[in-house]
Fold this protein.
Amino acid sequence: TKPLRDLAAAKGKYFGSAMTVTELEDTQNRDLTAREAGVITVGNEMKWDATEPSRGQFTFTGGDRIWAGAVAAGQRVRGHTLVWHNQTPQWVQDLPADQLRQAMLDHIREVAGHYRGKVFAWDVVNEAFEENGTRRQSFWQQKLGDGYLAEAFRAARAADPDAKLYYNDYNTDGLGAKSDAVYELVKSFKQQGVPIDGVGFQSHLLLGGVPASMRQNLQRFADLGVDVAITELDVRMRLPADSAKLATQAADYGAVAGACLAVSRCVGITTWSLSDKHSWIPSVFPGEGAALPFDAAFAPKPAYQALVTAF
Ligand code: XIL
């Protein structure tokens, strides 16, 4: 059967995967990803702790390696992520407000500037909302207030006028308080002329947990005039996996792909790695895992077949 990247492309979408340097050095993983993924999202190496570990000292080694590997495999690259509350050095978090604002603008200018013309999209701001739809009380929010989001997007547009600029979050996949808040953000950006081109739905899902309203939710964002994308898909289960759980997971993957395919402005689906060998889930959710379309030995799971069928 054809690789997912080709099946998706035939439907006008992309299929992609996250990639880290560790995963690139695993040749089986590298080869599988080259075959299946048409788009690479950089898993860790473009985050702040990797790119500006101390103030004004920029290092692009890891991100450049992943970018070069992607180009060699004929893949396009999504940048991830410029402004987030995690994986951001302590020196940033300790700055007083006026210096924090300047550090944010400098960081965006340098990182998005370095990758100008090399990435086709950026997750400009990641995870700025709480589950109830209020602003997450991160150091960004506490020191800079509501306005830092718009400032970040304006800075990103100035640094790379051609990249699609995304707001990216989790638990926003269906209708609800959190996705309502993102919806209002995008609406106000559009009204005020703040540059935004897309919304990323991470889709870190629980087994059997695809929201019934996912298609409707993606469509309402598309109707605001932005692209939408599934950016970090995985479907985790309590371990060990068994055939019933894997069948449910396959249905979940098929449902997510179906939601994206039903929305013309849904540009693509990215899974957060391809193989269970490299998934972030077991380290963050103890006792859970088996969340990806390939098992830890790189054999395709029912979820992979479900994606093939959906595309
Ligand atoms: C994860 C990475 O996969 C891990 O390797 C790292 O230790 C923590 O971050 N939401 C995001 C991603 O936007 O950047 C996160 O990636 C997973 C959750």
User: Anything to note?
Assistant: The radius of gyration is 18 Å. The first strand starts at residue 14 and ends at 19. The mean pLDDT is 98.
